[in-house]
Write a structure and sequence with these properties.
503 residues; alpha+beta; eight-stranded antiparallel β-sheet; binds flavin-adenine dinucleotide
Length: 503
């Protein structure tokens, strides 16, 4: 089998060959991947038009923290950069591929122990390779009445990678970083840091109290390249005695602002228990049809075809699905409150619908989105929107006009978090078509620039847009990140390019 020709930046073929032998001694040769064929899955970023192919040079798969420390020694000695992944399914943001070519992927799937679950306190401590499926099976087998909150690809991915990206789900614990408690982090020099109360010898409260003593550090290890997280504490939601999921349908495209202004107060006073998803007809249609079923010409599917196809299936231009959780009598009262609020604003409210993500059921339903066009290319554009109707309408019009200029269909599945909405919009394209890929790339770059120029920041972005996004979020911010990087990783071996953090 052919071995890889791609090298880490600035490292000679001879030196890299020596480093690979050293990796092999630490983890065992079977856990050093370097054949082109085996590297393929780690190279499929599925993002638009990359400036250079984001190809990794090898993959190393350690089994424990000591092996990670050994790998870091080798990397520091040879100045080899390393890209940590947990379950490596960061779909739409670069998947398992590094942000710059030649990095060695450090795959943590063998660190897959559920170290602790405290059924009384509703806490868990897990390693990076643990998947939501594994954790859910663990709870079910032991009849522990705790729910998980997961992102849409739940069965395939795990809490560590998702939380470190500050990902989200659809129960009241949907803010994953907001519900983690205590990290173990291996720093670039091999030192082991335990955040929060994890530094106390025999700590019995590491997973109960987030802030520890002194500066609260956990945030700097998310969307960053300052360390390798090897353990993460989680808070899990007690299974609610009752819950009820609703679908709210607004009949007109112009109803978006109205919908947001009804949702906001119900979220801020927590009558609505979870973020819910506010989505448009085009996104809903991806569950039923492909783009080619509606439109064969160039450009985006015309609105009238989207709305006609939607009507046939009982889909309206804007819909919001959300849930109420708690004691039955409280769910009962709040059902009346929310129904009246939405109905007064002209919406139809359908009670008792089923949305697996809102009720602790793992499913891969949302992957139908990838069938919209051939090829399954996906890049998320994810601006933050103040939770105000006027802003959401403004984002809608701006994004739709830019996407339409580039021949892409406007879709959104926005999570109504609290004071802000994460307005998550998929750009779906065929990566096998160079022309389509270039269009999607130009579209994404314009979206990022025009949204930030209008004052809107970005929640999260794919590997090939990280430098651009970071450059638009403040010069002092860039500089402080650079100082932290130099202090914690002076050789710059950890994930260069991640979140646009420079050394
Ligand atoms: C149809 C569809 C729907 C989606 N819906 C959602 C959704 O609802 N919510 C959501 O959040 N996402 C969603 N995603 C995006 C993505 O697939 C998930 O966020 C997924 O959980 C990320 O992949 P992962 O968990 O395998 O993380 P990984 O790929 O393992 O990690 C992500 C990144 O975090 C860093 N990292 C990972 N582990 C470590 C570590 N141990 N130490 C240091 N750094 C580390 C690395 O930079 C890595 O690239 C969706 C994707 C698709 C295709």
């Amino acid at each position: 089998v052919a071995t890889t020709q791609i090298l880490p930046k600035g490292v000679s073929a001879r030196e890299f060959a020596r480093a690979l032998v050293e990796f092999g001694r630490i983890v065992g040769e079977d856990f050093v991947i370097r054949s082109e064929e085996q590297l393929l899955p780690y190279r499929k970023a599925m993002l638009p038009e990359q400036p250079e192919p984001l190809l990794c040079s090898a993959v190393v798969i350690p089994a424990n923290v000591e092996e990670i420390q050994g790998i870091l020694k080798v990397c520091n000695r040879h100045r080899i950069s390393i890209w940590p992944i947990s379950t490596g399914r960061n779909f739409g943001y670069g998947s398992a591929a590094p942000a710059t070519p030649g990095q060695v992927v450090l795959e943590l799937r063998r660190l897959n122990r559920i170290l602790e679950v405290d059924a009384e306190l509703g806490t868990a401590l897990v390693e990076p390779g643990v998947t939501y499926q594994q954790l859910q099976d663990h709870l079910k087998e032991r009849n522990i009445p705790l729910w998980l909150d997961f992102p849409a690809p739940g069965p395939l991915v795990g809490p560590v990678g998702n939380t470190l990206e500050r990902g989200g789900g659809q129960t009241p614990y949907g803010d994953h970083f907001g519900h983690c408690c205590g990290m173990e982090v291996v720093l670039a020099d091999g030192a082991i840091l335990r955040t929060g109360l994890g530094g106390v010898e025999n700590s019995n409260s590491w997973q109960c109290y987030r802030y520890g003593y002194g500066p609260y550090l956990d945030g700097i290890f998310t969307q960053s390249n300052f360390g390798i997280v090897t353990k993460l504490g989680l808070w899990l939601m007690p299974a609610p005695p009752a819950h009820r999921t609703f679908l709210v349908q607004y009949p007109e495209d112009a109803d978006l602002a109205k919908a947001v202004d009804v949702i906001r107060p119900l979220r801020l006073d927590r009558t609505i228990g979870n973020f819910g998803v506010l989505f448009n007809a085009a996104l809903a249609l991806t569950s039923f049809v492909r783009k080619a079923d509606l439109h064969n010409g160039p450009g985006a599917v015309p609105d009238e075809r989207i709305f006609a196809a939607a009507r046939e299936r009982g889909i309206t231009p804007w819909m919001y699905s959300f849930s109420l959780y708690g004691r039955p009598e409280i769910v009962e009262v709040n059902s009346r409150v929310v129904t009246a609020a939405f109905e007064q604003s002209g919406a139809v409210v359908i009670p008792d619908i089923h949305d697996p993500m809102q009720v602790n059921e793992l499913s891969l339903e949302t992957f139908r989105l990838l069938n919209w066009t051939e090829g399954g290319g996906l890049a998320w554009f994810a601006p933050v929107c103040p939770n105000r109707g006027a802003d959401m309408r403004n984002q809608h019009l701006l994004a739709k006009s830019i996407m339409s200029d580039h021949g892409l269909d406007f879709m959104t599945g926005a999570t109504c978090i609290g004071r802000e909405i994460e307005n998550v919009m998929p750009l779906v394209f065929n990566p096998a078509s160079a022309e389509e890929s270039q269009r999607a790339d130009a579209c994404m770059r314009r979206l990022i620039r025009e949204f930030t120029a209008a004052g809107y920041g970005i929640y999260r972005t794919g590997t090939n847009y990280m430098d651009l996004v970071a450059s638009l979020h403040g010069a002092t911010n860039l500089e402080v990140n650079r100082r932290l990087k130099r202090a914690l990783d002076p050789n710059g071996i950890l994930a260069p390019g991640k979140s646009g953090i420079q050394i």
